[in-house]
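So, can you check these tokens?
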Amino acid sequence: MKRIAGILLIAMIGGAVSLGLYKAFEKKQVSFNSRPDGIPIRQVNYNPSAAFNQPDFEAAAAISVHAVVHIKSEFQKKSMVYDDFFGFFNFGGPQHPKEYISPYTAMGSGVIVSTDGYIVTNNHVVQEATSIVVTLNDKRVYKGTVVGTDPSSDLALIKIDEQGLPFLTYGNSDEVKIGEWVLAVGNPFNLTSTVTAGIVSAKARNINILGSQGAIESFIQTDAAVNSGNSGGALVNTRGELIGINAAIASGNGYYTGYSFAIPVNIVKKVVGDLMKFGKIHRAYLGIFYREIDDQFAKEKGFTDLRGIYVDDVVAGGPAVAAGVKSGDVIIRIDNLPVNGKAELMELIGQKNPGDKVVLIISRSGKEYEMALTMQNEEARTANMKDDKIILQGAAFQPLSDEEKAKFNIDYGFRIASIGNGKLKSAGISTGFIVLYVDRKPLRTIQDLKESLANHQGGVLIEGVYPNGLRAYYGIGL
């Protein structure tokens, strides 16, 4: 009995010791889950998706892949749109010339935007193509026809003959936030529909790739992987809404290296709508010459605020003059959206139609004013110019007539109506010369012309054509 009692006593002591160690250990665990001030931290079950608030990529991908198509374009000659056609706008590294065999083919992507076969893609995917073949995600193949193109935004609309197609609905690119999850959907490297994910890295990026100072460049920058062949594909949000058309990558070697760029869908909606209705773009304009405000310019003008766009001059008879805008004003907001640079301004104006009414918030002499402005058609600016020639470097410039555009198959450039003493005449340029490019950038707008020849210092290369078809090149120091 004494032995049994001793065993029981040892067992009880062991149990007590174990219980004490457990309690001590339990207290130790609690201390690790408390703040230094003693307030306990609430325990939750670990769920990776909940912890990081991951979006549902599956739903957005399922919606998108069937509305994104593969495009094969055939060309009889190398396109003059960009140096490295269809390989994306690779910049930041050396360019390597390529040899092209005629005819040749190139691959890209497009996005179905209606059930009856309208497809939006990049202009550089289809411009000058002699044949377009569209392959759907379910492998059906169609012949595509070009409805219209808009080089200034690098967008084009094509059509296939089919009904009941899946399509993507438009989102609102003005509401896209930096840090928001997005998907890029396209056909890289001639593969079938491929989906990659990333976030919006920045907005209103102007990367100077469209070759014109008047071009609409206000890209959505993402880190979703995009490569050659994704060009013209979809950038969608987690709801499966189209928020952009993928157009470019930042690359020195032609492959994705971390950044890609998409055309905002609000510009896409405007361009697609115009091309469907009219077959061409009816572009609206403000009627101002402007410059961005940086720290140095602000100090020169005595500004304490770096916000806004500085109005350098106004176009006679233009909408800005009618609204009361004056040289020296600073446009801060348009329709309650901030305007802090050229890219933001071009994006907002690029969404508008002639006749649209907008509200400007401007700063003048330290005070803010609200002005109502009615957008005019860009053709009205041309009409104003015909009565009031633009005088630059001793020469009078006028926009091209419809006959001149048809004769040379161009839609940009300015004709020298008369020329007096100055650097242009000294270089050998004569009356009638049509200036198409300055430093290889096409002159599409008055802003292009003024910035290229009036606000430029140093040497420039002027390219154009005479009425007899003779092409000429002039190097001039300004």
